[in-house]
Amino acid sequence: xxxxxxxxxxxxxxxxxxxxxxxxxxxxxFAGSNMNVMINDISADLGTTxxxxxxxxxxxxxxxxxxxIPGGKLTDRWGRKRCFVLGLVLYGIGALISAVSPNxxxxxxxxSILEGVGxxxxxxxVYILTTMLFSDLTSRARAFGVITGMGGIxxxxxxxxxxxxxxxxxxxxxxxxxxxxxxxxxxxxxxIVDPVPPDPARPFDAVGAxxxxxxxxxxxxGILQADTDVVLMAILVVVGALFIxxxxxxxxARERAGKEPLLSLSLFRNRTSNLALVTQNIQxxxxxxxxxxxxxxxxxxxxxxxxxxxxxxxxxxxxxLGASLVAERLTxxxxxxxxxxxxxxxxLAGVGVLLLLVRAWTSAWAFTPGLLLIGIGLGTMLTxxxxxxxxxxxxxxxxxxxGLSRCVSNLGSSLGTAVAGTxxxxxxxxxxxxxxxxxxxxxxxxxxxxxxxxxxxxxxxRTPAPR
Length: 467
Prior knowledge:
Elements: H1 11-33, H2 39-46, H3 50-78, H4 80-99, H5 104-133, H6 137-168, H7 171-188, H8 206-224, H9 230-256, H10 271-301, H11 306-312, H12 314-325, H13 327-333, H14 336-360, H15 368-391, H16 398-426, H17 431-455
């Protein structure tokens, strides 16, 4: 084991290193949701549509998911801190390009591509470094509680902060805000120490990276075509499935040849990790799907402006923040399976309340109880799910599992926006019915997550999967 892990670091040093890592997760999650309240402003300014903005949001989340596994593997070759800093730089450049974009195409290049790739490089190191630096389960749970809590707050507070900036200044200023935060993180990251030196000789599976990325892109882009071109949707989904199948066959052949693949199939032999990955995927699917559906409904149907929409979302932000603040105590008191299960039950209850109250009551207050419950539910289970996955593998496998874990979470985010957004946009001619249908689809997917949580073993399996 490298120096720095054998002897305990002062707690103040660890806290200083945790600050930029948590802020990085915050800003990346913020970027995934703050555009939800800018739908009308961006559409009018750039001459596009609600579907165009939905595409930009989804592509951003999709690029993150598609390149998260390669990003995780590159941390072994380039070093965790170097990948973190490079990702921040790319993200900041993308934010500045987005701020001056004259049309949707340039916005997609800046926000969806550059910010997406930057996020894919910087997020895996956040979780790898946290796992390495905080060696015992309690301190690691506390650290993950801070990081995932900041991520959840960023996603939930994105609409409010974005709404305030958009209404008070301009939607472009929200991207300048992101660039400023990135600059602050770069300054704070100077104190981060990579506990394991990079291995430049570590092989990188470029073919596997291309196959996996192509498969994920085709699958999600196919879902986005569901309301406009069913034939194209079917073609993209089938092509995406073939790419994924080809990726798995290629990985198996590479492993049999004794070569290191992009993603070892042995990672999927850990039942505990597999189930926790399902819960992670659906948690972020619910968070981003609900954020898009409610934001679009409030702006396009109810006529609320950006800041009004953001204020309504403070209920979800408060719920996530409150649950995150007690994450450490909850983890010490209850099994992680119990917390994840309770989180899904509470979140599904919130979706049910949203469906009932919004239909019966036209006031903006109708959204508050449901969003609060959703925030509490998500805040309760985000940390345990991550901790279960990361703690299931040994230190030398953190690059792989971190990339897979973040890929699964961000794929959930992109699927949430794509699936729920497509259902909503397709039915805007009958908005109340479309809103109810989109929320019902999310609730059904949430039930799948609840089943996965119930199947988690009571005692986590921390035995590393064999190489």
